[in-house]
Amino acid sequence: MRGKREQTKQRKRKLIRILGISLGAILLLFLAAGLIAKLIITEEFLSKEIESSINSEVEIGNASVSLFSVPARITLSDVVLSPKEEDKPSDARIEIERVDLRLSLFSLLAKEFNVTSITVSGADITTTYREDGSTSVEELFSKSDEGDDSPASPTDGGERGEDSGGEKSDGFNAFEQEEFVATLGRLTIENSRANVLLEEMGVKLLCTNLNAELSEMRVDPERLQETDTARLNLSVDVKADSVEGWAYGEMFLSGEASARIFNPKTGETEPDVEGDFSLSKKSWLNTQVPVITKAWSLLGNLRKVGVNVEDLPERASFGRSEAIAVHYHLGKITVRKPLSIWVDDWELAALDNSWLDTGTDMHELNAELLASESASNKFLKAMGKGVDFLPKEARQSVIESITTKLYREGRLFIPLKSTEEFSDPKIRPSGEIPDLADAAKEAGEKLLKDKAKGLLEGLLNRD
Question: Which domain holds residue 116?
Answer without folding.
Answer: 33-143+159-279
